[in-house]
Fold this sequence. Notes:
elongated; Udp-n-acetylmuramoylalanyl-d-glutamate--2,6- Diaminopimelate Ligase, Chain: A, domain 1; three-stranded antiparallel β-sheet; 14 strands; 220 residues; five-stranded mixed β-sheet; alpha/beta
Amino acid sequence: xxxxxLLNKVKTIQVVGNAELKEITDITIDSRTSSNNSLFFAIExxxxxxxxxxxxxxxxxxxxxVLHNPKVIPDQIFSHSGCVKIVVQDSRKSxxxxxxxxxxxxxxxxNLIGITGTKGKTTTAFFVKxxxxxxxFKTGEIAGRMQGFFHGTGHGVGLDIHEPPRVSRGRxxxxxxxxxxxxxxxxxxxxxxxxxxDMVLVTKKGCKNLTKFPKFxxxx
Length: 220
């Protein structure tokens, strides 16, 4: 996607550089995965500030950088490298907006149903799946497994963070008109997604939850 086309559909404060000449092939918040034609978002985290890695990604040849602290890197460095500087109000919120446009507004192409609770989520998900399939809708099941069903196991232990690009990506598996079921956590535009994960041991008689830490989330 041309950077100029993307910028025409999102909110920005300032753009320094020639966006017409830039082609974007991916969006990233990780300097280690940045490459030519990447659009890098500098995001302030709780421990690390993505603005500290702008020089690194410029040296790797990224097409553009989105940031909300315009004073951290002089405009001359952007001009010399040919990297486009994009200033926004909040780079974390803009990440969700840019990703939505870049990936073709995937939420508009899907029928989504959220299922939450302590027990019975998987069973309910298959009930919902069967209802939609009988109504003529294709669901996100591949090889007997529910695609798009975010299970509590298999994502790690403890606090699991889901940034917007990871939530938005799915065009290689999910197609227009498909129906998926999702086990929601807490998802906010300013913080991405967060939920508590469990580690479960499968035994002959069932399963055993090995996670012993207190499960409490507080949104200040």
